Amino acid sequence: MRWRQGRRSEHVEDRRGRGFGGGGLRIGGGGLLLMLLVAWLLGADPLTLLQALGGAGGQTVQVPAGSPGSAPPPGDEASDFVSVVLADTEDTWGALFQAAGSRYEPPRLVLFTNVVRSACGTAQSAMGPFYCPMDGNVYIDLAFYRDLRDRFGAGGDFAQAYVIAHEVGHHVQNLVGTAEQVHALRQRVGAEESNALSVRMELQADCYAGVWAHHAHRSRQILEEGDVEEGLNAAAAIGDDRVQRRTQGTVVPESFTHGSSEQRVRWFRRGLETGSIAECDTFQARTL
Questions:
Q1: In principle, which of 116, 140, 231, 259 could form an S-S bond with 112, CB 3.0–4.6 Å?
Q2: pLDDT at position 56
Q3: How far apart are the first and last CA of the chain?
Q4: Distance, CA of 103 to CA of 96 (rounded, Å)
Q5: How far, in Å, CA of 145 to CA of 140, rounded?
């Protein structure tokens, strides 16, 4: 992926190595970190999971101020890459919103180590990247990329960019009102219907990630040979069916919340090939 000459975003907040502020975080044992990672990959709300575990026994781990992790050197390559990708999403979505007669408000991307506080609650890094609609921020511990590569076989810079673009896709949904509408509807239906709505939300975010890549490449020629395959591989690697088979040995389609590998690849590819926001309307699609 050609990124080194790209613009750097002014909306990256680096909290890595900062103090968490003291206090305790109630967790439930050695398997929690993996549980939270799987929760993110399956679309469950890890913040809700943490709250549930906190009220159901378990141990309290103190996170002292000033010791969540050591800060990396300023201008390290990983944060530089993230800044360029975020800036590229700003340029792409800014142009698309302007063409539609509106103004794009970019999210802030928060880098953290181990633990972070957001308007949506306290999060552990093992829950993976997430978007908080209450403060409009994307949060990521860059160690997630190592897990994505080593545990799920989805390495490469464009795979990493896809993750950021997917979370920015959720920000777009928040800006246009989709997130609020779906959240309200999920409160009124049963678990299976709620999961189905979550799948449509996630697949639309995948499609929006493809829309970004389409326009970014057309305008700035960011893609190199093999990049598309990296992105599609990442989408496939975190499909619900593949994750469930890997973690629990069986696949339960009615519990899907992100979509199958095939669905995630198909919707990411649709956005990538068409560059059309209208083509990403997963809520009107008869089949996913």
A1: 116
A2: 34
A3: 29
A4: 9
A5: 10
